[in-house]
Amino acid sequence: MLKSTWKQFDEVELTHSSVHHLMAMHELLKQNGYVRGVDIAKYLKISRSSVSITIHKLIKKGYIKEDENKFYHFTDKGKALINDVLSKRRIITLFFEKVLNLSSEKAEAEACKIEHLLEEVTGQRLMSFLGFYLSNAEEAQQCRKAFQEFSYACGQVESCDVCELDCYFAGSQEKH
Amino acid sequence: MLKSTWKQFDEVELTHSSVHHLMAMHELLKQNGYVRGVDIAKYLKISRSSVSITIHKLIKKGYIKEDENKFYHFTDKGKALINDVLSKRRIITLFFEKVLNLSSEKAEAEACKIEHLLEEVTGQRLMSFLGFYLSNAEEAQQCRKAFQEFSYACGQVESCDVCELDCYFAGSQEKH
DNA sequence: TTCTGCTGTTAGGTTAACTTAACAAATGTT
DNA sequence: AACATTTGTTAAGTTAACCTAACAGCAGAA
Lengths: 176, 176
Description:
Oligomer: homodimer
Structural class of chain A: mainly alpha
Helix content of chain A: 55-70%
Number of helices of chain A: 8
Strand content of chain A: under 5%
Shape of chain A: elongated
Largest interface: A-B, 79 and 79 residues
Radius of gyration of chain A: 21 Å
Number of strands of chain A: 2
Order of helices and strands of chain A: HHHEEHHHHH
Number of domains of chain A: 3
Largest sheet of chain A: 2 strands, antiparallel
């Protein structure tokens, strides 16, 4: 891999924290019809002061505007971002839940950690894959069924095609 | 979702940065047979001082030990972690590349951003899925073939089952 | 109207991860 | 032997994201 690829982690347009301030806003707007700083603070379980600072940064960046009564609203830019992140989260969650059979709580928790890090194209491709894999297409249905019956027999071998090192899956069976 | 789920992001045992110091070590050990601070610094393109500090933290946490000549080595704990992360990266990369058809560079870059955030169980499930999906099983082969021929016809509709909001995939087609 | 409580902001402090600058110790060169 | 380079460490500064404490403004209750 390119030796500085790892730095892309820091180069996301908005941090995990900022994205979640926006997500909280979206959720609270849907719930209550309005959002104030204190609502976000309670929702995210952080201090009002911290929220105040982050929100002002987001205002400066053009994702949020504030009205006379200190109620917050999304700008078009903010709405677009929320839409992207929500879609991506939804798709990733669906994948974890419907394909990998994680519980819906775990699926959401895992999606939440990575949703803002993946590029649009990855989300789109995943979307496309799910659109097919979860469809009623004959091949998809049979594939799902066969996978359910399939149990990866990694326990017997020292190494397999997929993991070059000690078998990851084998190791996992001791732990679980 | 549980309202504090998002905080799990910060609660990973090792940060993105720390994990990548260990990954760099692994890579350099494989390449040269030894690692010093300056090697890691050059590899990660950060300052020697920064590496020095991070490495000492990792020594305190028990992932690395230092010999008389300031060469670094993994402890068993470090080896186990590297093994886990590498396996997870490999699986995720494979998924992005072989299932979602991302280029191998993009697949690795995307995997790199999220590999340390996903739980073991997620990696295992993905492993299991790939083990089947990429296998020679009749159903898997047909599914792969059918998916290749499939193009998600999202353009015609306002919304679809998968994305509740504006169609994510439709939006993406304008951009690309 | 005074008091209380809620809300937002500011000030000052912490931690993690970077930076540059300065320096000490070892190593290599001439 | 003297000088230059490499390497690791330390000091001091930056940014992001949190914290607590203090305080100002407002709004409702006694």
